[in-house]
Write a structure and sequence with these properties.
The chain has about 375 residues and is of the alpha/beta class. The chain contains 14 helices and twelve strands. Helix 4 packs parallel to helix 5 and helix 12 runs parallel beside helix 14.
Length: about 375
């Protein structure tokens, strides 16, 4: 499927997890929407776009297992999470429980709001290696008490590339009256997702990662009973456009003049994967991920972060490597070997993360193994 992407053929691209990569048919539809917008910008943005967005929301809602009326498109998960933090009245005495595996920019956001409002951000330190999902939940719950108002957790972590048991966390939190905010940036089109069955209070997901929609297409889901409390980051015309419609949708999707083409292309991204038997693609990539991780550990003598199973891993895997400088190593992989992949520091470890998607094959894995064998 490499010919269906615009990726540089000279580069071995093992970093789908960072920003995704958009197939050519999806890019074509994205540009078609941009051209349609420019034919009559006034009619498009003042009138027609709301019907188009309704269609796109319904398509995405069906894909992720919720009503299209319970989600809005946003540019990225960071925008969505900031919207939620600003909307709810967390204050002195409240505790927000997160893990040490959350996305760094959003840990920073939580910390800044904690400083301003006086709530306490409690960071669960993950015991490594992780063993079972049940054990992870029990360890997480050792931080829960009567002050815990929110559990914020990634369903698939960016730092360690692992799948966390979001369903069980939501179920247990609900029974104890604790709000759940799930960061699912890496989830849609990566692992199965049914938001209604999971039943979080808030779910945030990216469409431009594993769904391979255009950059700048993500979504914010909020349970219907909480939507009245969600305020937009930007106050614009909002629900004055049509007061009869949902304030949650109109206040959050209309925040000034913008190009909605990325959002409107999401149904085409879903259709592209449906037409290309994406369940088989994902299965092949999961197998390639786990096999490659095994091969890396034949070269590198560090302890695995988690078991090499589908319970923990999808199409990403992280390996600790014994080097001094992450950035230098990443640049060396690109400059000398034309391999694009993340190498970064997490806590006191330097990690290397593989991401495999439709355009990758065994040759890509073989090259990585050959290079790592040479370097280590």
């Amino acid at each position: 499927m490499k010919d269906l992407y615009l990726l540089d053929p000279e580069i071995t691209f093992l970093n789908h997890g960072s920003y995704g990569a958009c197939p050519i048919p999806v890019i074509d539809e994205y540009q078609r929407w941009q051209r349609q917008l420019e034919k009559q910008p006034v009619d498009f943005l003042a009138k027609d776009v709301y019907d188009y967005l309704k269609i796109a929301r319904d398509s995405l809602g069906k894909f992720v297992g919720c009503s299209g009326d319970d989600l809005v498109y946003v540019t990225n998960p960071t925008t969505a999470v900031n919207t939620i933090i600003r909307s709810f009245d967390f204050g002195p005495g409240d505790e927000i429980l997160i893990t040490d595996q959350e996305y760094g920019a959003l840990i920073r956001a939580w910390n800044q709001y904690a400083d301003k409002r006086g709530f306490n951000l409690i960071e669960h330190v993950t015991q490594l290696p992780m063993t079972t999902h049940e054990d992870f939940v029990n360890q997480l719950w050792s931080n829960v008490n009567e002050k815990t108002k929110v559990i914020y957790i990634s369903q698939i972590t960016s730092a360690t590339g692992v799948i966390l048991p979001a369903e069980e966390i939501c179920r247990r939190a609900k029974s104890e009256g604790i709000m759940t905010i799930i960061d699912g940036a890496h989830v849609p089109a990566h692992i199965p997702l049914n938001i209604s069955e999971m039943d979080p209070d808030v779910y945030v997901g990216a469409c431009h990662k594993w769904l391979s929609a255009p950059k700048g297409s993500s979504f914010l889901y909020v349970k219907n009973s909480l939507q009245k409390d969600v305020n937009p980051l930007i106050i614009s015309w909002g629900s004055e456009v049509d007061p009869s419609q949902s304030p949650f949708i109109f206040e959050n999707q209309y925040q000034g003049t913008w190009d909605p083409s990325a959002y409107l292309t999401v149904p085409t991204a879903i259709e592209f994967q449906t037409n290309n038997d994406w369940e088989s693609v994902k299965k092949r990539c999961r197998n390639l991920t786990r096999n490659t991780r095994d091969r890396i550990y034949e070269i590198i003598d560090t302890e695995p972060i988690c078991p090499n199973t589908e319970e923990w891993l999808g199409q990403m895997a992280v390996v600790e490597i014994d080097i001094k400088n992450a950035l230098d190593f990443k640049l060396h992989l690109m400059e000398k070997y034309k391999i694009e992949m993340p190498v970064y520091q997490w806590k006191n470890k330097i990690l290397l993360r593989t991401s495999f998607n439709a355009y990758n094959d065994e040759k890509d894995a073989d090259l990585l193994i050959e290079v790592l064998g040479e370097l280590f």
